[in-house]
Amino acid sequence: MKSITRTGLLIMALLFFPVSSSAEVTLWKMGGSGMPWAGNDSAGVMIDFEAAPTSIQPKLVTSDSTVFIFLEDWSPKKNPDELGFVDGERPRAWKGCCGTSSTVDNALNLIDGTGLTYNPTTSNSIASEYYTIDLGVPIPLFRFAMRTPDAGFFRSDGTPLDQDAIPAYEVSIAPDTNNDVLNTSDPIGEIITEARENARPVIFADFPMQYVRYVRYKRLESILDVFANSEGTGGTARSGTVGEFSLYGEGMPMRANYKTTILEMDSVVNFGRLYWHITPMRMVDGVAVEDPEANVWAEVEARTGVDPVPDIYYEYTDMGTRVVVTQERYQNVLKNRTSNVTNSDGLGGSVTLSVRPKPGIRAGIESDTENWTFWSFPTTESGEQLNLNRGSHIQLKIVLHSERFDEFARLDSLWIETSPILATRVVGEIARLDMPQPVRGVAEVNLGEKTDFLYELKAEFSPGEPGFDALRIDTGSEKAEFKNISIDGVAVNPVRAEVEGSAIVIELENRVTRVRNPSIQVEFAAEVFDFARTFTGEVYNVGSTDLPQPVEGGDASEALSTNGLRVLASSAESLELVQDLTFSSAVVTPNGDGINDVLRIDYTLYGLPQSVPVNIELYALDGKRVALVGQGLQGSGPQEVRWDGRDERGDILPPGMYLLGVGIAAENKNDLQMRPVGVAY
Questions:
Q1: How far apart are CA 297 and CA 255, in angstroms?
Q2: Which strand ranges, in their side-by-side order, compose the sheet holding 468-474?
Q3: Quick one: which of 140, 160, 170, 558 has the fewest CB in 10 Å?
């Protein structure tokens, strides 16, 4: 069960036993007694604000109404006009390739719950007559319905519109898909109903209850269309008029999405751990009841900044250069760029000419990486470190997950640790010790090869900020070695300098403050197991309850030219993702005598862009897989797991020789390194 309740006791302790008066850590809160969920949202799909006061949960879909009434803020375009649209944050329904908000071809006319609004048929190609519906999230559905308009003008042949049945059609559904399919007119997934000759004005198509996010209706060519073409009736509207689509289901969606507005803190703060409290729920005979066994969970991302606008907006000048403009001007005044125009060439043909961008034309949007962090990696565990830079503003994305139609997560509250900043800013820069100013402006190393690095820090202070007396650098390598530390270029002996796990921890003799603010240079050796690794760091005060402050990549020193904390790694050979596989013994003997009952397995993972699922796989000598034991998510670097001779069901494998492999799936590539192992008892 992924229900996030394990940290509940800790959260309650924080609430009922607050930190001492000398502590500076406070809890910023949403939900419960904190900031309300409703009114602080900028996007959301299937979020219910009313069912549980001070909480949010997914909306319950009931079969007495079409599912469209449970969704709000529909867009008639595949690519909505609003800036920063993200897939899944808004339901959409569009005609053809891209959709339109025009009266004639607006897909929203067909999902508004009334057959009085419809799109008149045209003489356009049948190939363009298809509609795609994106509910935003997968919702449990079991029925599709379609009908002709409830009223309207007669066709030219005298047929009333309520009897103007679609002669031929196809309807397909999918729980999720990708843009490759969305960019075509092909079936979106499973075809649930189709007809080449139809005379029914009302059509119902039932299918087994399942999660559905996408629906695609496509007009097919019928014998009537073939006849019309053969008779030369081009320009006449095709037969068949859709008045309304309907979808019916029952239960809770697989996901419900919530996104906050950009929320302002009282001041610039450092961020610590993120907590939340979820109540697992189940629908029983139409009533929501608590169920600790419900397989539900939350997924949370966050980003922070020091101003209210996380993006930079540009406009073209009359010289074709770019100038920064406000978000309001970009969104409401400027127009999209048209890069060329086609004119007559004076010879009976045409020529396409490039047009210089002019004022009044949008020149693009960029993330403000100097003042805002990127979205954090999604976390599903309450109590995790956010690993965000200091900020005065924060934005959250929350997804509530379920794997059953009758289960859902009620998110009651969410907390984030905050404390005052130690310095206005702490800037860090890393380079190879033997190459402080690389030609390409970034440190480059060989993958898995121990390399000497120089890591330089420089702080910026404003009055009243306390400073720091310790720092921590995460190397990602448990074989890292501390070499030396210098203050303003002079080697010194720190109070403490040692490696803890993969981190180098240094305690300084003197506190770094506004008055005493030297540059700090740290030399260390480490291996790099990722193609691109950021050597994150933080500063803090020994013995203080203040939260550490992250080191931000930037220009910390003229002696270094990398201006950041990222290191690139490469391999001269075709890279195996799993390497250095070794066992503590050639035989595992799971008989409970305390000798070789458990096999220790060591290996190293290379080149993974993020944590991936890792499995122990056991094969008989005839090649048949006999066990697949999951080891959870793992990232690049040395790893250690243990195996007790059992399969995924907990049964001990029969005595014999096997091939044991450690396997991962990354970037659509399966990588499995295997060694023989015996089971005996």
A1: 10
A2: 496-500, 503-512, 468-474, 537-540, 549-550
A3: 558
C-alpha span between 442 and 563 (Å, rounded) = 8
Residue type at 622 in one-letter notation: D
pLDDT tens digits for range 229-285: 555 445 566 788 999 999 999 999 999 999 999 999 999 999 999 999 999 999 999
C-alpha 574: how far from chain center: 29
Q: Residue 268 — φ and ψ, nearest 5°?
A: -75, 130
Report the alpha-carbon distance of residue 264 to residue 261 in Å, rounded.
Answer: 9
d(CA 453, CA 440): 17
User: Residue 129 phi/psi, 5° resolution?
Assistant: -95, 75
Distance CA 364, CA 319 (A): 16
Grouping H, G, I as helix, E, B as strand and the rest as coil, residue 220 is: coil
Distance CA 242, CA 280 (A): 41
Structure tokens at 519: 């540059």
State the pairing for strand pair 520-526/599-605. Answer: unpaired
User: In terms of C-beta density within 10 A (0-12 exposed, 13-18 middle, 19 or more buried), how is residue 506 classed?
Assistant: buried
- What is the CATH code for 67-249? 2.60.120.260
Say which residue the tokens 């290996």 belong to: 603
> 518 vs 337, 456, 547, CA distance in Å?
49, 11, 22
The span from the CA of 346 to the CA of 396, in Å, is: 57
Q: Which two tokens stand for residue 122?
A: 């045209």
Contact 24, 313 (CB under 8 A): no
Residue 602, judged by CB atoms within 10 A of its CB (0-12, 13-18, 19+), counts as middle
Query: Which residues have CB under 8 Å from 169's CB, separation 6+?
Result: 146, 193, 194, 195, 198, 203, 217, 218, 219, 220
> What Cα–Cα distance (Å) separates residue 381 from each residue in 2, 34, 115, 385, 639?
9, 21, 46, 10, 21
Spatial separation of the C-alpha atoms in residues 681 and 86, rounded to whole Å: 56
CB 218 within 8 A of CB 130: yes
φ, ψ dihedrals at 461, nearest 5°: -125, 150
DSSP calls for 124-162: S-GGG-EEEEEEEEEEEEEEEEEE--SS-PPPTTS--GG
CA distances to 9, 271, 274, 358, 542 from 21, rounded to whole Å, are: 22, 19, 22, 59, 18
DSSP 275-310: EEEEEEEEEETTEEEE-TT--EEEEEEEEEESSS--
Confidence at residue 235, expressed as pLDDT on a 0 to 100 scale: 54
Topology of domain 578-679 in CATH is Immunoglobulin-like (2.60.40)
Rounded to whole angstroms, the Cα distance separating 436 from 557 reads 10
579 burial class (0-12, 13-18, 19+ CB within 10 angstroms)?
middle
Residue 19, SS3?
coil
Q: How many CB atoms lie within 10 A of CB 324?
A: 11
3-state class (DSSP) for residue 178: coil
Per-position b or e across 69-83, b if 16+ CB within 10 A of its CB? ebbeebbbbbebeee
Dump pLDDT digits (tens) for 149-187.
987 666 666 778 888 899 999 999 999 987 778 889 999
pLDDT digits (tens, 9 = 90+) for 327-345: 888 888 887 765 554 545 4
User: How far, in Å, CA of 440 to CA of 17, rounded?
Assistant: 53
Residue with token string 């310790």: 470
Task: Please tell us whether the domain made up of 425-570 is placed in CATH 3.40.20.10.
Answer: no
